[in-house]
Amino acid sequence: MNRNTIYDLFLKPLFFRLSPENAHQLSHGLLELGDKIPFFFPTLQALTTYESSRLESKVLGLSFKNPLGMAAGFDKTGELYPFLSRLGFGHVEIGTVTGEAQAGNPQPRLFRYPKVNALINRMGFNNPGAEQMARTLHSQKKSIIRGINAGKTKLVNIEYSAKDYAKSFHLLQKYSDYGVINISSPNTPGLRSLQTRETYKKLINDIKSELGEDFKIPILVKFAPDLTETELIDNLEETVNLNLSGVILTNTTLDKSSLGIDNPEEGGLSGRPLKEKANHFTKIAFQHLKGKLPIIGVGGIESGKDALERIQSGASLVQIYTGYIYKGPFLPYDICKTIDDYLKSNNKTSISEIIGEKV
Ligand SMILES: Cc1cc2nc3c(=O)[nH]c(=O)nc-3n(C[C@H](O)[C@H](O)[C@H](O)COP(=O)(O)O)c2cc1C
Q: What's the per-residue H, E or C state across the chain?
């Protein structure tokens, strides 16, 4: 029996019998329990982790042991980082955290579409707030690269967004290797309007002046796949001008036409139906950025082949969320091995040699 069969036959049917949020809670509980059982985690870590010096890279001035990260939204509190950091990832992006704690939207707010390995969510940034997250992270040992993804508190007026983002970054920078300004989640009213070129420029300048000179970690921005190509290119240009450190492409999409169903749930769509769009955006960004900024590619990656394609489209790093739900905990091993096999068989010594090679 191979490792993926264990997930497909035993764990996935159990998780998929529960509501998606209860399944998430259960997996958290199982990880906590497993951590108390001798040999459980070392064994799981060995089964999920693939190591190779070819996969190591320096991006954002940071050393990543492999190019795969857990995308924002899976660990909204920071409490899962100690587990995820031992499950084959090279980095974990926690959050979205907001300046103030908030409950998010009423449940149900997360829905599976298993025929196409997709999810729709309208979580609405449920999170404990930056102060509580700082306490959580303070009690942890940091191992692999940890990013902090920050959003805007729903009750904070859009004009005061910069202060809210800056509050999270101030409180959390000492626990983070990089920060992300999330202006692309579809479930906070008005948030995506911050992607409009002039508003975007003002927001970033305001956040920067709130943060001051002492703020040192690289800051990236995460965009939506629902921008037009012109809007994307405008924003990329602005991102370079504003001296930000990189871009994350993409968040979930509001375009649910590819699901081919009447009345899909409200919220953002992720997983397989997002793959082509996110890959296309990565290619466009790579062509326009010309190496000036790194791209983190996310959206619909559910196999080693998908991850390799995203890197060849221009991503320096990739992330997964929905694919992890459908394919299970051994996906990081499969992704890293596929990329490494490709590098090996093409006589390449590092990931950097293949970034954007198919653009
Ligand atoms: C349930 C759920 C919650 C998410 N929450 C966040 C979030 O809080 N912040 C964020 O930037 N992205 C969030 N995302 C978006 C993911 O980080 C990712 O950009 C998107 O799902 C596309 O990747 P995927 O197809 O691999 O899931 C969330 C996605 C899902 C499915």
A: CCHHHHHHHHHHHHHHHCCHHHHHHHHHHHHHHHHHCCCHHHHHHHHHCCCCHHHCEEECCEEECCCEEECCCCCCCCCCHHHHCCCCCCEEEEEEECCCCECCCCCCCEEEEHHHCEEEECCCCCECCHHHHHHHHHCCCCCCEEEEEECCCCCCCHHHHHHHHHHHHHHHHHHCCEEEEECCCCCCCCHHHHHCHHHHHHHHHHHHHHHCCCCCCCEEEEECCCCCHHHHHHHHHHHHHCCCCEEEECCCECCCHHHCCCCCCCCEEEEHHHHHHHHHHHHHHHHHHCCCCCEEEECCCCCHHHHHHHHHCCCCEEEECHHHHHHCCCHHHHHHHHHHHHHHHCCCCCHHHCCCCCC
Catalytic residue, chosen from 184, 185, 270, 313, is: 185
State the pTM of this model: 0.98
User: Could you give all domains of the chain from N- to C-terminal order, each with its CATH number?
Assistant: 3-353 (3.20.20.70)
349 CA distance to ligand 1 centroid (A)?
32
Q: Is the CB of 274 under 6 A from ligand 1?
A: yes
pLDDT (tens place) for every residue of the chain, 359 residues total: 778 888 999 899 999 999 999 999 999 999 999 999 999 999 999 999 999 999 999 999 999 999 999 999 999 999 999 999 999 999 999 999 999 999 999 999 999 999 999 999 999 999 999 999 999 999 999 999 999 999 999 999 999 999 999 999 999 999 999 999 999 999 888 888 888 999 999 999 999 999 998 888 999 999 999 999 999 999 999 999 999 999 999 999 999 998 989 999 999 999 999 999 999 999 999 999 999 999 999 999 999 999 999 999 999 999 999 999 999 999 999 999 999 999 999 999 999 999 999 99
Interval between CA 175 and ligand 1 midpoint (Å): 21
Residue 185 bears catalytic tag: yes
Ligand 1 centre distance from Cα of residue 345 (Å)? 33
